[in-house]
Amino acid sequence: MCNIGMLSLGNTAENRIDIEEIKEKHTIIEITENLELLESFDAVIILEENISDLSRICELISKIRQRSTCYIWVMTVADQSVGKLVYLQLGADEVFDLSREAKEIAFIMENSMLRIKQLQVKKGSETENHHSDELLKLIPTNVSVMIEGNEEIVLTKLEFQMMELLLRHQGTAVIYETIYQELWKTETTENKQYRIANIIYHLRRKIEKNVKKPIFIKTVRSKGYMLNI
What we know:
InterPro entries: OmpR/PhoB-type_DNA-bd, Sig_transdc_resp-reg_C-effctor, WalR-like, WH-like_DNA-bd_sf. The protein is 41% helix and 21% strand. The protein is α/β, with parallel strands linked by helices. It has 2 domains: 3-113, Response regulator (Rossmann fold); 130-227, Winged helix-like DNA-binding domain superfamily/Winged helix DNA-binding domain (Arc Repressor Mutant, subunit A). Helix 6 (157-168) packs across helix 8 and helix 7 (176-183) crosses helix 8 (192-207). It starts with a strand and ends with a strand.
């Protein structure tokens, strides 16, 4: 599951372009032109409402490219986007208009997300193959974690899943919504952050020397958590 930011410049664009297949497989989070949490997204969808949005979208693409290497997709409610070549030149990866079939759009997006997943899996695999003197190593067969190559600590299933998720994104903040969907895969109105914080609390008690000054699991204020190794 990947994080995709949705930035709408109008009120009807999302209703006219079908991305339901993508919504079923990935986390879609609405964002504003302030580009909050940009570093946490694997892709950003910009919804163009009309031709007058061209200059705003050009500015947004430039800002995103300065801060992130994520995929940028522009969706327009017109049959053809007059700004398509400009958007691509500025760094957009694809521009979708109403002439593109929903299935085609879904395939293009999913193929892009698949490449991201493959890179994450490769990175995770390389991490597991580090030498025993590394700070932290997951041991799937034992549902445990090896600390500094000499202390193996048994984890619960949820604790292990949390560590596995943070490890795949090490050095990057993993937002609360992504963590919740990965661990529980349910929609609920209860306090998601509390459940996540509870898992983090027990993890820190097991792997950190000083819970009040954690070395491995860092809190990213108002966003989520990050693994620092």
